[in-house]
Amino acid sequence: MASVVILPKFKAWVPVTGVPAASYCLRTYAAGTTTNQAVYTDAACTIAAANPVVLDSNGEAILYAVAGTLYKFSLYDPTNTVQQSGWPVDNVTIAGGTGGGGGGGGGSSGEWVASGLVPAFISTTSFAFPVAAGNVTSTYALGRRLQTTNTGGTIYSTIVSSVFTTFTTITVVNDSGVLDSGLSVVNYGALNSVNRSIPFGSFIGVEAGTQGNLTTATRQTQLVTSPVVFIDKFSEFSAGIVTIKQAGNYLVTASASLNLSGVTFSGSLNYLVIQQNSADTFGQANFPLETFAGVNTGTTSAVMPLICNVNDTIRVQVQAAFSAGTVSVASCLMTVLRVGPN
Predict the structure, then answer these.
(1) Which one of 44, 211, 246, 275 has the fewest beta carbons within 10 angstroms of its own beta carbon?
(2) In this predicted model, what pLDDT tens digit does every residue of 259-289 receive, in sequence order?
(3) DSSP letters of 16-48?
């Protein structure tokens, strides 16, 4: 299938070979018809171009059109007799320019950006851009959303593979339906999954092994001794405490395991608690006792949604009341995830 790049100039390549379509003929019609419709050689759209437009030695031509005008383009060989594979391309818009006209350019509409490339269909889940388009994997990155026009209609997809060899091949997962051999237009989402403009939300994940022995009926803040921080986007965790930098709704999870060998409990205040600003939340859980490999242990977890302001603090504490033996914290884990604004 032939390919078109609309930059300041219209550009086309010869199908299969991918070389510039030098001296090829571009016929311009009103969208959905075979009625000639002029394009222009000046930005004011006062000087109509010949129809067909003969492309130069680079397969290019400067094209202008009255803003919003829709075209059907068809590419023919230099003798203007053989229509090329993959053509015509219908509902083409030439965007940009001045004086009511527009220089050829990949346009955008809402959250979708026109690629300016006509793809080569490979399968119901893949297509390629031509050699001359070069490496466009940075634009067509893993996870980016696509909107394509096919014979069967508009299909929305997510990129799962983007590979450049001599040309760029894109593989997608479709929301519903499939790509088909009438694939003619590719638009990509304005937001990229790589180096995106949408702000990241806070996400903190911390775990730690032995945190030392507890003193009976005394609260002890966890994740202070040798914590392993496996994610902390905005450096909000320090010395067992998360200090919030983004106000919003958060989901906090915590778990801990105790070694309880030879312990005699003297009360029921044996629990893990999630604190916000040094005050207990409803996110707390008692330690059930069990025997594992001959060692008494207690393991529990808690989950708590919180509404946080900037500089609020979150911590996990553990308490046990006992009269004999040694209670030690064997391990602890905390995650803090911002799930949305207030």
Answers:
(1) 44
(2) 877 788 777 677 889 999 999 988 777 777 6
(3) TT--B-TT-EEEEEETTSSSB---BSSTTS-SB
Contact 316, 223 (CB under 8 A): yes
Q: Which pair of structure tokens corresponds to residue 111?
A: 């959250």
Q: Is 76 helix (H, G, I), strand (E, B) or coil?
A: strand
Distance CA 309, CA 321 (A): 33
Termini Cα distance of the chain:
50
**CB–CB of 338/270 below 8 Å?**
no
Residue 94 to residues 111, 113, 253, 313, 328, Cα–Cα distance (Å) = 18, 13, 53, 54, 71
Other C-beta atoms closer than 10 Å to the C-beta of 81 total 8
- Is the separation of the CB atoms in 325 and 264 below 8 Å? yes
**Interatomic CA distance for residues 55 and 210, integer angstroms:** 74
Low-confidence ranges of the chain (pLDDT < 50): 1-8, 96-109
Provide Rg for the chain, Cα atoms. 32
CB atoms near residue 230 (< 10 Å)? 11
Is residue 207 within 8 Å of 222, Cβ to Cβ?
A: no
